[in-house]
Amino acid sequence: MKIEYKNKTLEKTVIALNCVAILVVATTFVMLFGFDVPPMPRMLLRYIDGGLFFFFFAEKVIRYFNAVTKRDYLRMYWFEIPLLAAVLFAIIGAGRWYTGASVREFSLDVISIYLAFQVIDKLCRSVVNIAAAGHNPARALTSVFAALILAGAGLLMLPKAHHLPRMSFTDAVFTATSATCVTGLTVMDTGNSFSYFGEVVILSLIQLGGLGIVIFGAVLGMMLGQSFSVRESAAMQDLLSADTLNRIARMIGFIFIATLVIETIGAVLLYPMWDNVPGIIHGAREKWWASVFHSISAFCNAGFSLLGPNLVDYNRCHQVYTIMAPLIILGGLGFSVLYNLADIITSRVASWFRKDRQLVDLLHTSAPKRLHLQTKIVLSVSAILIVVGTALLWLFEFCSQNPKADTGILAAFFQAVSARTAGFNTVNIASMSDGSKLLLILLMFIGGSPGSTAGGIKTTTFAVIVMVAWATLRKRREVEMFKRSIRLVVLGRAITILMLYLSMVLVSTMALLITERQSMFTLLDFLFESASALGTVGFSTGVTPTLTTAGKWIIITVMLVGRLGPLTLLTALLFNVRSVKYEYPSEPLVVG
User: Fold this and answer.
1) Where are the beta strands (DSSP E) in 162-299?
2) Into how many domains does the chain fold?
3) Which of 49, 241, 568, 584 has a CA that sits 20 to 30 A from residue 331's CA?
4) How far is Cα 447 from Cα 427, in angstroms, rounded to an integer?
5) CA 444 centroid distance within chain
């Protein structure tokens, strides 16, 4: 919904002042909560926040009287009146609940919460508007990710965010990029190097980057009763890989609920695991935090762990294979696939609760729910990759007779799952055989599925390319999958993605061979590192902590390209290139 205002100049002035107010709020929050001793007096910062509270209140009043249709304005910002009422009630009632200086502190804390909500609301609405602007969606998405990375890096550099004497800008950007791009490559130990505040920042970047900050903006807008315009719905359709506009709102709601439910169940089920290895995580608070952190990191396919050697110490715990692995698989399937499966399951379950099925069947006119082609491809390819990957990893390690690897069938299964593209490991990757590393590179290169938190060329792209070769061998004129023909434009897109990924892996590997020429690592190690960064996996043979500054920036670039996709970045660069309206005559050409 878009609100029309009478005085356009006044509205532009209010928007500009809002931007300044958001910057001031962010600055005061950083000074208050990011330093042991704030650079400015604490009470002065608190009073500045109090002044900003009155500014936002005045802004609502001005916009209300400036709106052409006040009813639409109230529908758009219906939550503002009860929210302000709650704030005023808390401030007025503070005198009854507290005494002395506590009254002032409580009132200022309430105002800070209100300001934080205002900033989040305005930022989320802004990213949705940016995504729907239509000028260059790919460039807008890239800009949003870059802004999120820089903001995260700035927060990680704050003294309260880490336990180091000093956090360099490069290391902060590397960590923020790895978290936002849900990769998991780290130049330092996450659990020991960062404070609780720093870990919260990393986890927030994982959640925002994994599901998309634009999706969070859309979720917040829906929760506050905002309806999407056609242009905003189209932007959401592109981000979610949805096939129709009319179910965008339902899918966004499903993403929010499914993510919350899956991550909550995962955290609850992971809680007992930390007792299996004593001396690492202590107390109920640390166990709950570790459970929440690893559940979100697994579902978002991030690979970040609060444990130094990742999950190596917990390789005997059944939760790693029964909880972590399913979380990774669910996160890598894609929300469109999960939505399709949930839609079928709910419709089947609902049919069992109908009292008179025959009468209902006569009155029921809509088409029965079925598995979409993408769902069939994703489930089939994912199952094949997991089974074949597990078998080959176990075979390679069994034949290598390497006592350091200790790769049984369960470990092989977890590494095959995690390679697409979670990055958790229960064995030392560096100790694995060269055959296993090459197989992991292939799995990382393929990655997860479209519309998921995973990276790689995606399972559907891999399936299309394989079926193109199969159709050629069978001398079929069309590529067919599950009795459906694949359009030519899809085939061209798949081949383009494959070529771009291959080019990026080769270029980044050669660049690392130059910047890390003094390193003792081999070509296979650098190829593994590049494939891991581009596939947003997080596996490493030990190269990451030893990277030079130039090498870190190469990996930062590769991680960002891998999360956004080379095709997205190419679209951002070539958005204004117009297609030609003519064709040259064809001529036979011999290939192969």
Assistant:
1) none
2) 1
3) 568
4) 20
5) 17
